[in-house]
Specification:
The protein has 298 residues and is an alpha/beta fold. The chain has helices at 10-23, 38-42, 54-59, 65-68, 89-92, 102-108, 127-135, 147-166, 187-200, 213-217, 225-228, 233-245, 268-271, and strands at 28-32, 70-71, 77-80, 116-120, 138-144, 174-180. Helix 1 (10-23) crosses helix 12 (233-245) and helix 6 (102-108) crosses helix 7 (127-135).
Length: 298
C-alpha cells in the first residue's frame, strides 16, 4: 500500500485489507513500515512495547522478520510492528550498500509461513518506501478522490517506472489504483471516478472505499473495521476489495448481530499523558496613551 500523499487511506486500507484476507482463510503478515506506527496502533498494540521491531530487521543482519512478528486479535493475521525508531533508518542506511534490498532479504525468512504479505508504507518516497517497492509483486495505490491526490499519483507512477528499470529483475508487475473517500452523491467524485477509469482502465479496482465514520472510529478501539463494525459499509467495502484481489466472489453470508459502538473508543487524555503541552501566550493589550485635555474643556 503506497502513496507519497498523506491522508489518502493507506494505513486504513493496509489494516482492513489484511483482516479481510485473513477472514477469507489466508495466512497474512502485515508489515508496518511507517515510523508513525499507525498500523501497529490500529491493531491494538503499543509501539513502544516491543523489544524488537522492523527497524531491527533493516539495521541488524542477525534479526529475522520471524523474530519480530507477533499475533494479533484476528485469526491468521500476524503483525511486524514498528515504532518511531524506524524514522532513523533513513539516515542510518544512507551509506549501506544494497540498502534497497534489505526488506526483500527479510521476507525470504517468512516465505513459507504466510500466503500474503501486506506492507504499509510511509507517506514519502524514501529508503523505506523504496525497500517496499523493490520487494513487492503487487502495488495498491489508495487514491483519495481529490485533485491534489491525483497530482501526487503522477509522480508515484514515474518513480515506479524508474524502479522497474533500475532494479532488474524486479517482480513488481501488478499495479492497482484504489479510490478512497468516495462520496457518490457529489458530482466531483463521480467525475474523478469516470475520468480515472477512462485513463487507467483495468488498473482501477472495481471496488471503491466510501467515506464512512466507522472506518474513522475503528482505530480508537484498536481493531479493524471488520471486527469493530462488521455490518458497516466500510467493512463491506474491504471484504469486496479482498475478494477482488483474490479474484473470488465476496461472501454473501450475513455476519452475526453486533453490538453497536459509536464514537471514539479511547480517552484522548491517555494519548497525551506525560507529554509537555504548551500554554497559549496571550498578548497584552497595548496601553492607550493618555490624551491631554484641552484648556477649553477645563
Amino acid at each position: 500500500m503506497v502513496n507519497q500523499k498523506g491522508g489518502c487511506g493507506k494505513t486504513t486500507t493496509a489494516v482492513n485489507t489484511s483482516a479481510a484476507l485473513a477472514e477469507m482463510g489466508k495466512r497474512v503478515l502485515l508489515i508496518d513500515l511507517d515510523p508513525q506506527a499507525h498500523a501497529t496502533i490500529g491493531l491494538g498494540h503499543d509501539p513502544n512495547f516491543f523489544p524488537r521491531t522492523v527497524y531491527d530487521v533493516l539495521t541488524n543482519a542477525h534479526t529475522r522478520l520471524s523474530d519480530v512478528a507477533v499475533r494479533t486479535g484476528i485469526g491468521r493475521l500476524d503483525l511486524a510492528p514498528c515504532n518511531v525508531l524506524l524514522a532513523g533508518a533513513e539516515l542510518e542506511l544512507a551509506s549501506t550498500q544494497g540498502k534497497e534490498l534489505l526488506l526483500a532479504r527479510g521476507l525470504r525468512d517468512v516465505r513459507e509461513a504466510y500466503d500474503l504479505c501486506v506492507i504499509d508504507c510511509p507517506p514519502a518516497l524514501g529508503v523505506l518506501t523504496l525497500n517496499a517497492l523493490v520487494s513487492s509483486t503487487d502495488i495498491i495505490v489508495p487514491v483519495q478522490v481529490h485533485y491534489y491526490a491525483l497530482e501526487g499519483l503522477r509522480r508515484l507512477l514515474e518513480t515506479v517506472a524508474i524502479i522497474r528499470q533500475r532494479f532488474h529483475p524486479c517482480s513488481m508487475d501488478n499495479i492497482g489504483l484504489l479510490l478512497t473517500f468516495v462520496e457518490e452523491r457529489t458530482t466531483f467524485s463521480r467525475q474523478v471516478q469516470q475520468q480515472l477509469r477512462e485513463i487507467f482502465g483495468d488498473l482501477v479496482f472495481d471496488t471503491v472505499i466510501h467515506r464512512n465514520v466507522r472506518l474513522a472510529e475503528a482505530p480508537s478501539a484498536g481493531e479493524p473495521v471488520l471486527t469493530y463494525a462488521s455490518q458497516s459499509k466500510g467493512a463491506a467495502d474491504y471484504r469486496a476489495l479482498a475478494a477482488e484481489i483474490l479474484q473470488t466472489v465476496p461472501s454473501t453470508t450475513e455476519p452475526a448481530e453486533e453490538r453497536i459502538r459509536r464514537g471514539i473508543q479511547k480517552q484522548l487524555s491517555a494519548i497525551f499523558q506525560g507529554v509537555w503541552i504548551p500554554k497559549r501566550q496571550r498578548r497584552q493589550k497595548p496601553v492607550e496613551p493618555i490624551r491631554p485635555q484641552s484648556i477649553e474643556s477645563t
